[in-house]
Every structure is written in C-alpha cells, then in structure tokens.
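Consider the tokenized backbone below.
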C-alpha cells in the first residue's frame, strides 16, 4: 500500500495513503463521515463482557480449558501450569467437503475423522485464564488533545495464561505511523504463531516495553471522542485490556450478506484491488492498520458518489416538473480553468458544455419568475458549490 522503511522496533511510512489523498477532505470531515459506522452499544457491551471475564476455577483449584488447535479439553492451575503434560495432535488446515466423497483435511488429504497430522508439545488456549485488570481511554477530551481517527492492529502470541500482545501498531488518517513497538508478554510464551503474527523469539530479545507502557501511551493519546478503526478490534482491545466506545470495525462494516465476517486479507483486493498479508513470514500490524483505514476512507468516497448521484436524480426530477432541461457545471473542469470558489458563487452562468456532465440544477418558480441554482459538482469526490442565475 506504500513503501516502508523498517527496523526492529519502528516502521515509518514514506507516503500518505492513496485513499486519503484521493478523498481530499479535511480530517474533521473524515471524522464526521465515520460517525454512522460506529459500533452500537450491543457491540461495546459484548466487548466489555469479554474483557472482564476469566476462566472459572473449580473446587479442585484448576481451570478447564479448550485447546484452540485440537479442540480437546485440558486442565491448568491458576498459574498456568498443566495438570497433565499431553501432546496436541492437530490439523493446521480446515476440512474440505466434496459432493459424493468423504470429507478430508486440506493439509494432509486424510479423512476428517483421523488424528491430526501435526504435533505440538502442549495444548494452547487464547482465552484469558484470570480476570484481567482493565484500563479505560480518557473519559473526556483535554484541551491539547485532537479529535483524531486512528487505525489499530496488534499481533499476539500464546502464553500459559492465554493470548498476550507482542506487537502494537497505530496509524493516523493519512496512514502515517503514530506508534509501533514490540511488547514483552507478562507470562511464559508457549507459541509465537509466527505464521500469522510474524513474530519470532529473537524479535522479543532485549525488549523492555510492557503492556503497561503501551496502555499508558494509548491512554494519554486516546480519549472518548477518538475513533478507533480496525478489523476484529474486539480481539485487539481484549489483549490490550483496554476499553473504548468509538469503534469502527471493518469486519462488521463489510460483513457478508449471510452475516459472516470477511478476512482482512480478502477485503482490500475486493474493494481496492490491493494484495495484503502476502508475506510468508506472517502479518505486519502497521500494514493491517493502514489497510483498515484505507478501506474506511474508500467507503466514505463511495458514499459521497452515491449521495451525489442520488441528489442529481432528485434535482433532475424537480426540474422536469418545470419542463426545464438540467445543466451541468463540472467543478473539476472549472477549477482546472482557474476559476476561484468565490467566483463560483457570484458568476452568472451561461449554458455550458463540458466533456462529461454529472450534475444538475434546482428551479424555484413564482409566476413567470424562475430561480435556478446551479450545483457545480465533482461527482467523483462529492464536492459541491452553488451559484444562482
């Protein structure tokens, strides 16, 4: 999506997002246009519930967990120690179903009822083992704080007490990196999930940044009015142990007609003709955060076009009532001719031909007097100006 200069702890984008440049809107307008995509109270209540729950400890002092890979149940102590050291046999890929043929696993082409083709020393579970301490973003915006829009993504690893954050990335509306850091998990790591997280053991060597440090940074930057954009943000916020209310979740905004949530890897190609998460070394949190931001910027652009077309149709129908042919004045064409915004509002317009005519005018009639409002529009980006004749 852009070129990057990458180091072990920091990545700085060398260019703004194309979608931000194309939209050509002030940041305040972008903030306002995202309002209708904020998650509702039901989503936020569910997130709060997920954040504050932990595994139930039995009377024997152990917690029953369900393995993420093989789905088998196992027991651990509140400290995360296994009551039985048992190997996990699992299939890394899903079952493939063919009409008239037995179901098989994609990874090994073996029958779906057979034991896993891969083995791991222990079972793993992502749910928090104990009820975590939760932090909140600022309850009000301070004088020095911006009403910002940020894209957030985290990479996680499996520890003895569940999923924990190992890397955090935050970008602004333009796609520039605001914050990026590896994070040292609090507990012993069982699996780095390098295939997905892109994190290796050597990446965390010498890392002193803790989850508390990340919470402090985000707590000082974010406040209740900020908008956080991400894909499946409930998982990121759960591992950050952070609550926030102004959330735009692209997995919900772009949900399929059957209610299923698309993968972040699929959406950019469908909407932007871009390929992401194509690195065999795993995901990259800044790229994912920029992708979520780009998807919503493009959504605003699509909304503007839809709104302009709808307005055109409405005005055209109004004009037909007076039996008057609608006329287009293309704002992009006029701007290219060096005509200022002030002149757009004061000039008396003759009938005018352009190479393409996306728009219209409104007519108000009192007796024989007709008042025409020419709406000069760049249809592609939804910019409107008005002048009367």
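A designed sequence for it:
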């Amino acid at each position: 999506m852009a070129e990057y200069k990458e180091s072990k702890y920091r990545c700085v984008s060398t260019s703004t997002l194309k979608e931000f440049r194309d939209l050509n809107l002030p940041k305040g307008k972008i903030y306002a246009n995202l309002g209708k995509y904020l998650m509702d109270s039901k989503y936020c209540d569910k997130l709060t519930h997920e954040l504050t729950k932990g595994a139930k400890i039995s009377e024997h002092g152990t917690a029953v967990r369900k393995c993420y890979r093989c789905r088998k149940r196992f027991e651990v102590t509140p400290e995360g120690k296994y009551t039985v050291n048992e190997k996990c046999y699992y299939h890394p890929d899903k079952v493939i179903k063919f009409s008239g043929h037995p179901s098989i696993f994609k990874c090994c082409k073996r029958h779906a009822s057979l034991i896993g083709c891969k083995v791991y020393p222990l079972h793993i579970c992502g749910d928090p083992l104990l009820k975590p301490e939760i932090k909140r973003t600022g309850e009000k915006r301070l004088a020095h704080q911006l009403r910002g829009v940020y894209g957030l993504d985290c990479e996680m690893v499996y520890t003895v007490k569940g999923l924990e954050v190992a890397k955090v990335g935050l970008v602004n509306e333009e796609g520039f990196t605001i914050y990026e850091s590896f994070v040292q998990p609090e507990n012993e790591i069982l699996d780095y999930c390098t295939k997905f997280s892109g994190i290796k053991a050597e990446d965390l060597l010498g890392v002193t940044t803790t989850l508390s440090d990340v919470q402090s940074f985000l707590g000082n930057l974010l406040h209740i009015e900020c908008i956080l954009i991400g894909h499946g943000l409930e998982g990121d916020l759960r591992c950050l142990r952070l609550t926030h209310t102004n959330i735009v979740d692209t997995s919900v905004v772009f949900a399929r007609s059957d209610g299923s949530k698309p993968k972040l890897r699929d959406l950019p190609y469908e909407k932007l003709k871009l390929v992401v998460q194509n690195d065999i070394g795993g995901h990259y949190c800044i790229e994912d955060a920029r992708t979520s931001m780009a998807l919503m910027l493009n959504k605003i652009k699509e909304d503007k076009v839809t709104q302009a077309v709808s307005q055109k149709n409405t005005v055209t129908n109004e004009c037909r009532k007076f039996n008057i042919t609608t006329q287009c004045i293309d704002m992009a064409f006029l701007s290219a001719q060096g005509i200022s915004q002030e002149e757009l509002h004061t000039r008396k317009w003759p009938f005018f031909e352009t190479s393409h005519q996306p728009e219209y005018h409104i007519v108000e009639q009192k007796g024989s007097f007709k008042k025409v409002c020419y709406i000069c529009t760049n249809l592609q980006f939804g910019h409107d100006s008005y002048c009367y004749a």
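The longest strand covers residues 149-159.
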